[in-house]
Amino acid sequence: MNTVLQAHGLGKKYGRRWALSDCTLEVPAGRVVGLVGPNGAGKSTLLNLAVGLLTPTSGTIEVLGSPAGTSQRAKIGFVAQDTPTYSRLSIADHLRLGAGLNPNWDDSLAQARIQRLGLNPKQRAGRLSGGQRAQLALTLGISKRPELLILDEPVAALDPLARREFLQDLMEAVAEQELSVVLSSHLVSDVERSCDYLVVLVDSRVQISGEIETLLATHYRLSGPRRDEKTLPAAQHVISASHTDRQSTLVIRTDQPILDPAWTVSQLSLEDLVLAYMGRAVTPESRPVLEVQR
After folding, report:
1. Whether 223 and 281 share a structural domain
2. Main-chain dihedrals φ then ψ at residue 239, nearest 5 degrees
3. Residues 111 and 229 grouped into a single domain
4. d(Cα 7, Cα 57) in Å, to the nearest integer?
5. What is the pLDDT of residue 282?
6. What is the β-pairing status of strands 264-267 and 219-225?
7. Distance separating alpha carbons of residues 212 and 131, to the nearest angstrom
8. Are 261 and 286 in a shared domain?
9. What are the phi and psi torsion angles at 272 (to 5°)?
10. pLDDT above 70: percentage of residues in the chain
11. Helix (H), strand (E) at residue 134
């Protein structure tokens, strides 16, 4: 599998506090990857390490085949949290700045996007709406013609209509430029709408990664008479379990048929799957990456 990002034992420490520790991850090329996890899981720290804004305290991270923060920066587009822009600069100033800083800058693409969005190039960024600032940041990110586009919760503060428009524009850019994308989000609906690959990060550790279609086809909810999950067949890996006096409800992963007639079997939504993995207790034993592919 070709990868655009690889981390091994990656950690970042601030004073006595580890914002990210012992993270091991591989992100495949040619995918739109949804990176999800609870607050404090280390998602933003991981992405800032990937683009070279932070340096690791421990471990290694490579992006596009080279150590993060080296000469491949021109090949990476980055839209940070809150889609930061320079409030006193106009849209035209931002495009000129992008052209001056990026050797592969596509000015025709940038100008066409600004015109299509109906934005006034003379308007200052500080007077744009949140959705317009997000679109300006996305324009800057894709107009440098990157190989990898990294988005750190770029639509979290936007209203539903602005989120939808941003993600539609992102999907058009992916189709036109054949980008690899890593999109961090706490909104599973956004991941479901735009991503084809999922990574769930909890306490710096990857709990599951794989094609979303395959993940949904290999995870099930079982409901039936109370049972000790240890009695299940070896091919049925229990992700979460809850019990009442008479009934058990399990979320399992398996690529084998479920033949026990005592179970009522149902498929999971993507949100159900993500929550099941986010609710797992993270222990040293849960460290290995679970990767599911066709």
Report:
1. yes
2. -95, -45
3. no
4. 13
5. 54
6. antiparallel
7. 28
8. yes
9. -60, -45
10. 94
11. helix 130-143
What is the identity of the amino acid at 3? T
User: Token digits for 231?
Assistant: 């009695």
Residues 6+ apart with CB under 8 A from 253: 218, 219, 236, 237, 239, 290, 292
Q: For residue 237, give the 3-state DSSP assignment.
A: strand
Average pLDDT over residues 56-72: 88
Would you state the pLDDT for residue 281?
56
The verdict on 38 and 164 lying in the same domain is yes
Q: Specify the DSSP element, H or E, that contains 240.
A: strand 237-243
Assess whether pLDDT exceeds 50 at residue 284: no
State the CATH number of the domain containing residue 38: 3.40.50.300
Its domain, for residue 276, covers 213-292
Per-residue pLDDT tens over the stretch 196-254: 999 999 988 889 999 999 999 999 999 999 999 889 999 999 999 999 999 999 999 99
Assess whether 220 and 287 both reside in one domain.
Answer: yes
Residues 58 and 195 placed together within one structural domain of the fold: yes
The better pLDDT of the pair 291, 280 is held by: 280
Q: Cα separation of 5 and 9, whole Å?
A: 13
**What is the average pLDDT value for the chain, to the nearest integer?**
90
Average pLDDT estimate for 185-205: 90
Ramachandran category for residue 80: left, alpha or beta (phi over 0 → left; psi -120 to 50 → alpha):
beta
Measured between alpha carbons, how far is 37 from 204 in angstroms, rounded to an integer?
Answer: 9
What total number of domains does the chain contain?
2
287 has a pLDDT exceeding 60: no
Q: Are residues 204 and 242 in the same domain?
A: no
Helix, strand or coil, per DSSP, at residue 195: coil
Last residue of a domain, one of 210, 244, 267: 210
Q: Comparing 163 with 221, which gets the higher pLDDT?
A: 221
Q: Please, which residues have CB within 8 angstroms of residue 294's CB and are 6 or more apart in sequence?
A: 211, 214
Query: Among the three residues 163, 183, 210, which one is the final residue of a domain in this structure?
Result: 210
CB-based burial of residue 108 (10 Å sphere; 0-12 exposed, 13-18 middle, 19+ buried)?
Answer: exposed
